[in-house]
Design goal:
Blueprint (H helix, E strand, L loop, with lengths): L1 H21 L3 H29 L9 H4 L18 E5 L6 E6 L3 H18 L4 H17 L1 H12 L3 H27 L2 E3 L8 E9 L2 E5 L7 H12 L3 E5 L8 H15 L6 E4 L3 H9 L4 E5 L2 H14 L3 E4 L4 E5 L5 H13 L9 E7 L3 H13 L22 H14 L3 E4 L17 E4 L6 H4 L6 E7 L2 H9 L3 E2 L2 E4 L3 H9 L7 E2 L4 H4 L8 E2 L2 E2 L4 H6 L2 E9 L21 H13 L3 H16 L14
Parallel strand pairs: 5-6, 5-8, 6-7, 8-9, 10-11, 10-16, 11-14, 13-14, 16-17
Antiparallel strand pairs: 1-2, 3-4, 4-20, 9-19, 12-13, 15-18
The structure holds nicotinamide-adenine-dinucleotide.
Length: about 625
């Protein structure tokens, strides 16, 4: 209140001063102030309109299959033998054949790396404003063409359009926005303290692009999985060679043309981004082919192979592997909100999320109520072709054989005492009308079941009962994976306390997945979920060599030279001189420092002496 009164007085004084200086009346001064604010607003608006108009618009014409929703065409059969030089592409919801992509050989991958290397030599010198220009071109394209982007992703991976908007478009836009707004701040040289003895030095870290980044990605988000490493790698000044999954290669046609057009419009080298299609051999060739850093996103099993291969060439790797996230619900959580969030955590993208909720720990006091609310919702989820005439909540399983694998885990759980409350039937064998597995709900899931241990990566909500906070922490940590986690409780402090005890790389308090929406945060896990980070400040800086640089702070006044007692041949008081330095700089308290200084001066003034430089007797 007092501060407000003071501010009013200050404003009054300013107005009076203005009246005295200009001779204007109070009303005229007010009109002037309003006019100034309006003018500033108009300038800002004008600048904003002009800068938006200045972002080049790129045009990418979609093909028939990319542009249209349903096309009657040849069906693909996964049991049909396929030439190993090609990757067959098909829509997992309809099994419509979409064509082939080349299965690149190791030699071809190396050629791509070499092209990217040449492009990286040019791009590493680019300014941050040129890199921002490239990202803004992409962002504008995404906003203008999100429907086609989502349709292409839906056709390639079987996900509903809404899941594509959330999981492909929103997170990519958020990432680009963050890079444009804050990326430069974290890549500019960062000044660091130079310590006590090097007080006359200026120390800093320079973030130097690594050169060529190699990324290997899975099939669950064909658009975001490409754009995510690409935008960060390019913003950090690198080139990128990216190996996409053999189960979602078709969409690289449209997305690749978009990337090429954006590079051209931004004046960036055409070879800056190389897309590799193929199988494990192509991925292995990328790891061993001479890239400067590998980002691997995929299963724990293949992650180990990648790490082994990278060890041969000492290529650094980031491993973003599987997950089996805990979703903890306390008895006082807002159950109505939690139920809807839990459905998204389990069934978004048909559960094919590395950081998706898999283990739902619900407090015994609300266990039955939670199930009561969830059962009808799960049973009524609509599943089908995302590009068909009817709206769907859940789409298809992208990877052939995954529905059968998920079903095996469900059957094992039921055989060992879990309650099957929804779903759980293998609707059709792969190949007969789409790769679907129904949204499934299991209650009373316990240790000893396969589903307790293995990653499901499918639409299964496993519900577990708990009674004390210590117990739920122990149950949640009884897992080989540790990627994300969510804790819901009436008291935010209690939720925070439980979350702080979870072995996980990420925790959302009273929410799910929000750590990924904050693109300034690192993304990654612990234990078998991998290590190092690919998003956020840590991920962005991880695409650079953090080069330590040190130089004279005042070169005109003080330059480095070897102190006379230490010059070769070293003098007889060299050790005493060293002792005096240590005592002066690091001795605890003034007494030490004065003694050290006196000993140091003695050494310098009497070069032939043996001076002691020892600590004072009093100490
Ligand atoms: N932590 C994360 O950020 C994250 C994100 C998405 C998916 N995932 C994980 O990915 C897995 C599902 O994806 P997937 O089935 O495509 O995984 P995957 O490990 O089978 O394949 C991933 C990629 O590795 C390639 N590959 C296969 N063998 C290789 C080899 N020997 N050397 C190099 N590359 C090789 C594949 O061709 C593919 O492009 C799940 O475990 C999921 O949790 C993790």
């Amino acid at each position: 209140m007092e501060a407000m009164q003071e501010a009013m007085h200050a404003l009054r004084a300013l107005v009076n001063q203005g009246i005295a200086l200009t001779g204007f009346t109070e009303t005229q001064l007010l009109q002037l102030a309003v006019a100034a604010v309006v003018a500033l607003g108009l300038v800002y608006l004008f600048k904003d309109v002009i800068s938006t108009l200045c972002i080049p618009t790129i045009k990418v014409s979609p093909t028939d299959n990319e542009a249209n929703d349903i096309i009657d065409a040849v069906k693909y059969s996964p049991v049909q033998p396929v030439d190993k030089d090609v990757v067959p592409c098909y829509d997992p919801s309809t099994m419509q054949a979409l064509g082939f992509k080349p299965a690149m050989s190791a030699a071809e991958v190396r050629t791509r790396i070499a092209r990217a290397r040449e492009a990286s030599k040019v791009w590493r010198k680019s300014s941050f404003s040129q890199r921002r220009k490239l990202l803004r071109i992409l962002l504008k394209f995404i906003v203008d063409n999100m429907e086609t982007i989502c349709r292409v992703s839906a056709r390639d991976s079987g996900k509903p359009i809404l899941d594509a908007i959330v999981g492909e478009v929103v997170v990519t836009c958020e990432k680009i926005h963050w890079l444009c707004m804050e990326g430069e701040r974290y890549l500019r040289p960062e000044h660091r303290s130079s310590g006590i003895m090097s007080f006359y030095k200026a120390a800093r870290v320079e973030y130097v692009p690594v050169g060529v980044v190699g990324a290997i990605v899975p099939w669950n988000y064909p658009f975001h999985n490409v754009l995510n490493p690409m935008t960060a790698a390019l913003f950090a000044g690198n080139a990128l060679v990216i190996k996409v999954s053999e189960h979602a290669s078709w969409s690289t046609g449209y997305y690749g043309r978009m990337i090429d057009a954006a590079l051209e419009a931004a004046g960036a080298p055409a070879d800056l981004v190389q897309i590799v299609t193929g199988y494990g051999e192509a991925g292995n060739a990328l790891v061993t082919g001479g890239v400067d850093k590998v980002i691997f996103v995929g299963s724990t099993q293949v992650g180990k192979l990648v790490m082994r291969a990278a060890a041969e060439t000492l290529t650094p790797v980031v491993l973003e592997l599987g997950g089996k996230d805990a979703f903890i619900v306390a008895e006082d959580a807002d159950l109505n909100a939690v139920v809807q969030i839990s459905l998204k955590a389990a069934y978004l993208n048909c559960g094919q999320n590395c950081a998706g909720g898999e283990r739902f720990f619900v407090h015994e006091k609300v266990y039955d109520k939670f199930l009561e609310k969830v059962i009808p919702l799960v049973r009524n989820l609509r599943q089908g072709n995302p590009l068909g005439p009817d709206p769907v909540d859940c789409g298809a399983m992208c990877m052939p054989g995954l529905a059968e694998k998920v079903h095996g885990l469900v059957e094992d759980a039921v055989a060992r005492g879990a309650q099957l409350l929804a779903g759980g039937q293998l609707r059709s064998a792969s190949g007969a009308g789409g790769q679907f597995y129904p949204p499934t709900l299991l209650a009373d899931v316990r240790p000893g079941m396969k589903i307790w241990e293995e990653e499901v990566f499918g639409p299964v909500m496993s519900v577990v009962r708990w009674s004390t906070d210590d117990e739920v922490v122990e149950l949640a940590n009884d897992c080989a994976f540790g990627l994300g986690s969510s804790v819901f409780a009436g008291s935010q402090r209690r939720a925070r306390d439980i979350a702080s005890r979870l072995e996980a790389g990420m925790s959302a308090i009273n929410d799910f997945g929000t750590t990924y929406m904050c693109q300034s945060l690192p993304f990654g896990g612990v234990k078998h979920s991998g290590f190092d980070r690919f998003a956020g400040v840590e991920g962005l800086r991880g695409l650079c060599v953090p080069k330590a640089v040190c130089e004279d702070r005042f070169p005109m006044l003080m330059k480095s030279s070897i102190p006379p007692p230490w010059e070769f041949p070293v003098k007889s008081n060299a050790v005493a001189f060293g002792r005096s330095l240590v005592t002066m700089f690091y001795g605890p308290g003034l007494l030490y420092k004065v003694h050290g200084l006196a000993a140091l001066l003695h050494c310098l003034m009497f070069p032939g002496s043996y001076g002691t430089g020892a600590k004072p007797k009093a100490a």
